[in-house]
Specification:
This protein is an alpha/beta fold. Helices cover 37% and strands 16% of the residues. It has one domain: Aldolase class I (TIM Barrel). The protein is globular and about 60 Å long. An eight-stranded parallel beta barrel has the order 1-3-4-5-6-7-8-9, surrounded by six helices. Bound molecules: iron/sulfur cluster. Iron/sulfur cluster (SF4) binds next to loops.
Length: 369
């Protein structure tokens, strides 16, 4: 049974109440105990490794109107979809920086980001990068199959908010309006054969404890139903972006650390991802507490690493391309990053913290024939 059909019952189940207790306000002594236990569990199950990856944005075209996102159709921004050769130039730049694990990211636009285009991107990228994951619009299982066959082994899809009224308010237009369709996406992806599945909530839209409990309930469900896949969880917090949306329910640093610990205590084997949305100092602290996967040196716009796609940049206003006032130099980013260290600097810091940066943790040759 898909999670959407069990969602309300899962939130009322004893598991949810137990997880919520881990999120109760904690004094310093309790938080230190949680942190020590979380750090020990992380070392036991993941060793001293920190898996590094980079996002590669293919396109910032989007037909959805997500109130919090810089790529929202409502925003008048500079957009582009990279050609295959341009994508490869970005990938080679990331490979030269050390990455062997790339997350392809694209907005939702059937014209620019068709399944055929994505399949070609994956196939060509997989020739030079052994670990390829996707963060793109949710699809049917049948539509995922060619992408898996082309070499995509990871799929990331965030529910954004698990609070239905807030979801409806934030997603007024476009296919993303369908809460349940998105909620069941990880199971469709697992059925298609993705080896890694990542889920998450975008913190800042609704009460952080409610979001965290629902996210934990979702993870718990996926652990039982998608047991062949490795699971990761992300806890992105809203960042400045075009559209100027401000967090309504901020998740403070201290509570974010408590949440990471609560997830580690509850799910000892699940990877926890922290992106460059977060500042360097906080990433360095959480790297020793429970986080197991990090992006580094990220750009959140297509062509951000090497300036690819400049010739095709265009200004889009409410879904229509209009003339630019002057020469355009770069596509608009999805959101601002906070940790602007280079990949080498991040790796160096991790080593100084006693951790082993892992640039490559998978190769297709490991797949049974
Ligand atoms: S969050 Fe995704 S679907 Fe929504 S506007 Fe941004 S890119 Fe499009």
């Amino acid at each position: 049974m898909p999670f959407s059909s069990q969602f309300d019952a899962a939130l009322a189940a004893p598991f949810a109440a137990r997880f919520r207790r881990l999120l109760d306000p904690a004094d310093d002594a309790r938080l230190h105990r949680l942190a020590a236990e979380s750090a020990a569990l992380t070392r036991r199950h993941f060793g001293r490794t920190m898996r590094l990856f980079a996002p590669l944005y293919l396109s910032n075209e989007c037909i959805n109107s997500c109130a919090y996102c810089g790529f929202s159709r409502e925003n008048a921004i500079l957009r582009v979809t990279l050609e295959i050769d341009e994508m490869l130039a970005e990938a080679r730049h990331l490979a030269a920086a050390g990455f062997r694990n790339i997350l392809l990211v694209a907005g939702e636009h059937p014209k620019f980001v068709s399944n055929g285009y994505l399949e070609t991107c994956v196939r060509r990228l997989a020739e030079i990068i052994p670990t390829v994951a996707l963060e793109v619009a949710p699809m049917e299982t049948a539509d995922y199959l060619p992408l898996v066959a082309a070499g995509a082994e990871g799929l990331v899809v965030y529910q954004e908010t698990y609070h239905r009224p807030t979801y409806a308010e934030m997603h007024v237009h476009g296919p993303k309006k369908d809460f349940s369709w998105r909620l069941d996406c990880p199971e469709r992806a697992a059925a298609a054969g993705f080896r890694r599945i990542g889920i998450g909530a975008l913190f800042g839209l609704w009460d952080w404890r409610d979001e965290a409990v629902a996210l934990a309930a979702h993870l718990d469900h996926l652990l039982r139903t998608c047991w062949k896949a490795q699971l990761t969880v992300s806890l992105p917090r809203l960042k400045p972006a075009a559209g100027d949306f401000h967090p309504r329910h901020p998740l403070p640093d201290r509570e974010l650390i408590q949440l990471i610990c609560a997830l580690r205590l509850t799910f000892p084997h699940v990877g926890i991802v922290m992106s460059t949305r977060e500042p360097a100092a906080l990433r360095d602290v959480t790297a020793r507490l429970g986080v197991t996967h990090m992006s580094a040196g990220s750009h959140t716009e297509p062509g951000g690493y090497t300036g690819q796609g400049q010739e095709n940049l265009h200004l889009t206003v409410r879904g229509r391309a209009v003339a630019c006032d002057g020469p355009a130099e770069a596509a608009t980013e999805q959101f601002a990053i906070s940790d602007d260290r280079t990949p080498a600097e991040v790796a160096q810091k991790l080593a100084a913290l006693g951790l082993d940066p892992v640039w490559k943790d998978w190769d297709p040759a490991l797949t049974p024939a």
